[in-house]
Amino acid sequence: MRIDVRVGAEADELRSLHQWLGADREIRRSSSLTLQEQPPEPGHMGGLLDVIQLVTDNGWSAASFAMALAAWKRTRPQDPRIEIRRGDTVIVLTQGSDAEIERVIRALETSTEDEAPGT
């Protein structure tokens, strides 16, 4: 399963979340994390960091992922907006409340259950 995560407009926040998720043993054990860049704009040397991409295996836990996002969010002084995309499903965390975390878990578990084998 592939999940894309975007954080506000700041590349530093995206890097911070990438490091946070990479330090989480449960997430590291059951997924691979990469930072993806947008192609560079004409006249610029490099691309802009755009998204964290998670590719998960069968042992992946939506609950562990959602809790890690919420824990990271609580450490941020500016309370950044986090967008999680799984196929056509998009979930936005604005506060990291219990209700939002539950919504993330439900949405990701539902899209996992609905997924055809081998995708």
From TrEMBL:
This is Uncharacterized protein. It comes from Streptomyces galbus. InterPro entries: EACC1.
